[in-house]
Amino acid sequence: MMRKCITAEAIRQYAAASQDLAAIHLDEDAATEAGFKRPIAHGMYLMGLAQSLYIEEHQAQWITQYDMKFHKPIEVDNVVIFDFSEDDCLVKVTLTTEAGDVIASGAFSVKEV
């Protein structure tokens, strides 16, 4: 299990790199208008972060396929808990808030490099 705070700076960096500049991710007013207290993280940022965190701990693995379902958004300045469970070449991951709400879940296939 790993914990990561989703910061506004990380979201700005991801938006610039991905060219996904949707206001809901970057602008307080747009996020508020959409019903959130703060901007929300990009789903693809969360998926990439899950993969990166796993690979940091398992450097002999290579991700060959992945699938992620997003259940609810997460606002910036919140902690996400990444819970990994491994079964042979399949890694299941669940992303939750500190309160236990599931943000996303999925799996990726891995192989030894």
Automatic annotation (TrEMBL):
CDD domains referenced in this protein's UniProt entry, alphabetically: R_hydratase_like (cd03441)
Which InterPro entries does the protein's record reference?
HotDog_dom_sf, MaoC-like_dom
SUPFAM superfamilies linked: Thioesterase/thiol ester dehydrase-isomerase
- Coiled coil ranges: none
Q: Please state every residue range assigned to the domain named MaoC-like.
A: 6-88
Q: Which Gene3D superfamilies match?
A: Hotdog Thioesterase
Which PANTHER family does this entry report, sorted A to Z? Answer: (3R)-HYDROXYACYL-ACP DEHYDRATASE SUBUNIT HADB (PTHR43841:SF3), 3-HYDROXYACYL-THIOESTER DEHYDRATASE HTDX-RELATED (PTHR43841)
Q: What is this protein called?
A: MaoC-like domain-containing protein
